[in-house]
Each structure stands twice: as C-alpha cells, then as structure tokens.
Inverse folding.
C-alpha cells in the first residue's frame, strides 16, 4: 500500500454511493486527475466541511492496486470571488468541466499551478483573457502546440493540422498579427505573466481566438 501526504487538489465532481460512501474526482498537483473513494464521507461532518468546489484542498491518500482512498482532507485556500459573483460562479463550473477533460493520472505541475493561479487571479475585468489562457494551457498540456511565430505577420492557421500560410486555404482561420502574437504569448508564458500584461493584451480578440481554441479541441 502506498501513502500520499499533503497532496494539493481541486474538487471536480462528487458521486454519491450507497452506505454514505462517495467517489471524489480530484485534479491534483502530483498525481493528475484521479478518482478517490471516500468511505462514509456523508457521516463525517469534519471532512464534509472541508470538501467543496472553488478551494485548494490538501488530501492524504492511500493507494492499493489502482484504487485511491481518502484518509484525511483540509482546506488550504478558498476562492471566495466565485461565491460572491453568480456569473463568475457559472464560469468557474465551466472551467471545472474543462479540467475534467485532462487525461487521468497525467501529472503536470506547471498546468496545475497555472490553473490555481487562474482561479486566484480571476475577476470580472480579466475573466475573458484568463478563460482563453486556461483553455489554451489545458489543451497544450497533452498536445504539442506549434510555435505561432513561424510566420511573423498576419497568417492563416489550420487547427486540424497546425499548418500556417500567408494565403487562405480550406479549414484555416485568419489570425491578425496581434492575435498571432497573443497565441504565441499564451504558448510561452504562465498565468503571472498574463496578469502582469493584462492591459497590453488584445482583449477584444478573445472571443474570436476562443473559436480557434475550441476548433483545436474538437480536432484533437
């Protein structure tokens, strides 16, 4: 039996089982996305107080074979902005659904830190940029994303085969030069860099660039 102590985690989903048992879907810093069996959780007021969405949890786990079991849990940090703004709360649950697409037991410490940083930094002013960053990074984690500085001008980009061209071709999206630079910025940098550069980023392009990210998600 393996033991894992003080593993940072986000709650993604709960599934109630007979007998007050619960399956927790967690995205963890060290183990990736995992399912955890929580025995008699519904009877444990102490553990129930700690387990909730929009907070960083610290979990102690045991593992026998391929199954994880919850031993203890505590809250490290709450993201209170989501409970005070209904629109942000809806966005936050959308983000949780997207994080659930991360492959199981595929640990990526950089991605975990960027996700936590996004939940910490988000507000009504920054939400579109941070959502674009988050979607891009979640896609980038298991995929090899091309460099967007291969052609340093306005380009056409195909999300299916990652081809670039200065001329239009079927299935390609037009990326203006500042939009192409925005994608390259997202590819290279971390959430702290996004927050530091927020006023200089082309935020009016976020909706159009999200369409490109969604197309990459569909194809890959």
């Amino acid at each position: 039996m393996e033991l894992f102590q003080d593993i940072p985690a986000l709650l993604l989903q709960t599934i109630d089982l007979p007998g007050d048992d619960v399956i927790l879907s967690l995205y963890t810093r060290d183990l990736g996305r995992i399912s955890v069996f929580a025995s008699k959780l519904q009877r444990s007021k102490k553990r129930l107080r700690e387990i909730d969405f929009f907070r960083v949890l610290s979990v102690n786990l045991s593992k026998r074979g391929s199954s994880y079991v919850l031993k203890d849990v505590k809250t490290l940090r709450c993201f209170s902005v989501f409970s005070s703004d209904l629109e942000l709360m809806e966005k936050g649950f959308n983000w949780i659904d997207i994080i659930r697409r991360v492959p199981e037991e595929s640990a990526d410490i950089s991605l975990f830190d960027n996700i936590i940083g996004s939940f910490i930094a988000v507000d009504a002013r920054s939400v579109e940029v941070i959502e674009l960053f988050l979607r891009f990074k979640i896609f980038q984690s298991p995929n090899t994303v091309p460099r967007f500085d291969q052609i340093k001008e306005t380009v056409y980009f195909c999300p299916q085969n990652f081809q670039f061209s200065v001329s239009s071709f079927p299935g390609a999206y037009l990326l203006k030069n500042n939009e192409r630079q925005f994608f390259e910025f997202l590819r290279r940098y971390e959430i702290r860099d996004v927050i530091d550069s927020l006023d200089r980023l082309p935020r009016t392009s976020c909706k159009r660039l999200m369409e490109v990210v969604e197309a990459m998600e569909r194809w890959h």
